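OP here, attaching both records as promised.
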Amino acid sequence: MLPSFNNQRYGSTAIALHWIIALLIVVVGTLGLLHDSWPKRTQAFWINIHALCGLLVWVLVMARFWWRLRHPPPELSAQIGEFSRRVSAPVHLLLYALMFVIPIIGIVTFIWHGRVFDFGLFRVNFGIRANRAVFNPTEDVHGYLAYLLFALVGIHALAAFWHQFVRRDGLILRMWPSGAAAKPAAKQRRRTGGR
């Protein structure tokens, strides 16, 4: 049986930020993984796109921090087990920490490669020459932390699917867009006789 999630759902701003950041992480991650596959003539362009998407992730994560400080998350349903309650907060905290730190290390790597941010209408040049002593280790750390983030995002997604399709406790509906969430909830109520 699904509980009523009207008072247990995140607000529309939190939901929008969650899914936009998730989509951007997929994009920036894919661009990062394809880094060595780009032809030399287009490599600078795609590295710049990767960096700009990373900057956007960082800005949106800061917006998410700010929003969450002013809008505490809704209470978890009583159906959510003790293990999920204990693990959820540290995993989310680590996800946020990685989304905060990885773009900063990426920016350091980008700048100390001697690269220029090209925003289309304007460029930002820090005037720093390429320095392997800086960008080699930061590039490695950036990559390793990105792999850790991908692993955690995968665990996060699997946990959401487990709650939705195995536990059937409707946890995923807390962060699902409202129109899409209403249909599964209504279907579940019909299946359980409206309880």
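Record two, same layout:
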Amino acid sequence: MQKPQAIIFDLDGVLTDTSEYHYQAWKHLADDEGIPFTHEENDAHLRGVGRRESLMYLLKGRSVSASQLTEMMERKNRYYNELIKQMTPNEVIEGGRELLQEIRDAGIKTAVASASKNCMVVLERLELVRYFDGIADGYSVVHGKPAPDVFVYAAGTVHVPVSACLGVEDADAGIESIKAAGMVALGIGPKERFQRADKVLSTLARHRLQDMLD
């Protein structure tokens, strides 16, 4: 893989595993509403997907009003925010800070492209903000993943053309977003999760820049 001018990271499930907190918050909401919901469903259908789309899956066709939808999304977010209050800098993947520093030392820009509206809170709790040249989150764009918008926006924050960016994602919807943006896509997780990733690593933990580019 050619050395990119920028590497754009999803946050949840890539540099930290907040996916478990998201699952617990959705599970709490599902239990409130008497809706069966499993870990397997979460991984298969909600990973990397925005809050509204996730809720529509969770409801499984149940009819609710617009105001009920809004209230449920807000309730899930309250549950999630309560859970992430306990996050510490120790929840960055092993070697994650060193990897981000190595990328910056190599003259490559770094950015975050997260679907989460809680992205900044998580970055602050993890003490990662200073490692990024640009941050795009759930407030930055109207259309979430798998639309390309958040990755295109992130590339704009670091003034690098999309064709010179490497996008890093743990969800297939995110890989779709990266490819639609015209970037090279690195998937993090099991190979069978991804349809279109250019390269897959099981994790970024304990990895170096060269591992991402080889």
